[in-house]
Amino acid sequence: MVGALALSMGIGFVMIIRYQFSRGDTYAWWIILVMSLVAFVPITAVSFSIGGVRSPPGWIIAVCILTMIVAMAISF
Q: In degrees to the nearest 10, what's the CA dihedral of 38, 13, 68, 56?
């Protein structure tokens, strides 16, 4: 389920970035931010609660969240 969610989010991000964000639409930045938070935060919480702190998927998702935060800060 996590893989399917990540794949669908990736496709959605590519479409938003390719068409709206590259044209300079101001709402695209907020859509990307909200999509990221709505998906990645619960997935991280679930993977840490199931696998514990030593779970590699949890850390990979946490790194994705940090990368998204840095990218959004740079683009802002």
A: 70
**Mapped to the 3 state alphabet, what secondary structure does 3-51 carry?**
HHHHHHHHHHHHHHHHHHHHHCCHHHHHHHHHHHHHHHHHHHHHHHHHH
Cα dihedral: 59, 62, 63, 69 (round 10)? -170
Structure tokens, 28: 């695209």
Q: pTM value?
A: 0.63
Residue-wise pLDDT for 45-61, tens only, equals: 777 777 766 666 667 77
**CA–CA dist 75, 29 (Å, integer):** 8
Cα distances (angstroms) measured from residue 53 to each of 26, 47, 48, 50, 72 = 37, 9, 6, 9, 26
